[in-house]
Amino acid sequence: MVRVREPLTRTAVLERAIRLIDHEGPGAVTMRRLAAELGVEAMSLYHHVKNKQDILDGMAALLISRMPTLTSADDASWREILHDVCWSYRNLMTAHPNVFAAQGGGRPLISGEDQLAAQRIIEVLERAGFPLEIALDLFQVGSSFTRGFALSDVAYRDSERTVPDEWDSDRAFDRGLTAIMDGFARWLD
């Protein structure tokens, strides 16, 4: 019986790269290794990705595009949406820390998928009454706060350091996010 191989796609390349980096770390993601994992020649990957940086950016963009809160937020308030998106982003970054660390700790959004996700959030903020400039600022501050917090969480989790029992990262993140939203809400009055 002849085994038919699924056609190679950009998504298949990125999904395999995510599995590799999650299990073996950033050093495992090379064109040669990725091609071997997919059962193809390394040169055939270049039909789907430009280079290694494209793979690193693509992995993050693919994960971000699958965040559930970006597609299920039609009737929620701007606060609920921003809260849920930031929590989802933080959870995503802590679940796949090697992806985001290898990508540069959350480089600026540059692909079509993550630009679309950002645009949806900014549209929600504008519909709530934020001027575009303020909506952009709120998006940038919220996403930067979330990236920084997630990277810090991963660093503590992966280190030998102990933290005081009173330290509750989830509580601190939620309070920080609430403070950001409260601060920006003044532009709605």
Describe the structure in your own words:
This is TetR family transcriptional regulator. This protein has about 190 residues and is an all-alpha fold. The chain folds into 2 domains: about 10-50, Arc Repressor Mutant, subunit A; about 65-189, Tetracycline Repressor, domain 2, CATH 1.10.357.10. It has 9 helices and no strands. α1 packs across α4 (about 50-65), α5 runs parallel beside α8 (about 130-160) and α5 (about 80-95) packs antiparallel against α9.
Summarize the structure.
The chain is an all-alpha fold and 189 residues long. Helices cover 66% and strands 0% of the residues. The N and C termini lie far apart (70 Å).
Unreliable segments of 5+ consecutive residues: none
How many strands, what sense, and barrel or not for the largest sheet? Answer: none
- Can you tell me the CATH class of the largest domain? Mainly Alpha
SSE order: HHHHHHHHH
Number of helices: 9
Proportion of residues in extended strands: under 5%
- Span between N and C termini? 70 Å
Rounded mean pLDDT score: 87
| Total domains | 2
Second rung of CATH, namely the architecture of the largest domain: Orthogonal Bundle
Domain HTH tetR-type: 7-67
DNA-binding region: 30-49
Protein name: TetR family transcriptional regulator
Keywords: DNA-binding, Transcription, Transcription regulation
Reconstruct the topology from this structure.
Elements: H1 10-24, H2 31-38, H3 42-45, H4 52-65, H5 78-95, H6 97-102, H7 112-127, H8 132-158, H9 169-185
Helix pairs in contact: 1-4, 4-7, 5-8, 5-9, 7-8, 8-9
